[in-house]
Design brief:
alpha+beta, Hypothetical Protein Pfu-838710-001, two-stranded parallel sheet, 4 helices, 11 strands, 17% helix, 40% strand
Length: 205
Amino acid sequence: MSDGGDFEFERKFYLLEMPAVAASDPTPLLIAQAYLFAADGYAVRVRLQGPAPADVNAPLSELVDALGDEAIGTMTAKGPAAGGTRYEAERELDPLVAGQIVSRAAHVIVKVRSSVWLGEDGWVIDRFLGDDAPLLLAEVERDGPVVDLAIPSFCTTEVSEDDRFRNEYLAQHPFGTWEQDYRRELDVVGPRFVNSLGQNQFEGR
């Protein structure tokens, strides 16, 4: 979460392939998060995260155990997004409790997150696992609205305002079940980017 109080300011992009720069992160994270409630843009999430183990394709219960003492647990309440801004109140949660909730929840997503610094912005690149594979998303967060953004060439199209790419939606409608439909849609409509947040700068295009 950003340091902008109980709000997050972010923009999100769909990727066709994993960018080479992601390999520059020596300590990617494994993130497993369960959605206990999600409706009309509101959501309650429990997250467990820690250093990604060697075998990220192991069963969820084994991944939770593999995080061990380095795991961090959080519970987050989210509100609807508007203009790249979303209410988000995040609080710490005992990792043992978080792990038990994640292991038992019906709607869970698992992903490996790499963090990189590009120009003036920190980016995260998420590779989704399980039923949400082969989804790749990149996000950038700031302490205020993400305006005048330098968009890397690996960003295929912006999905900041596409609710299908919110984690709570993906937890209930895994990307693997509608990937082909989305790829056909993308071929028809082409890349789109939010143009109401200052001047976009496209790198390497």
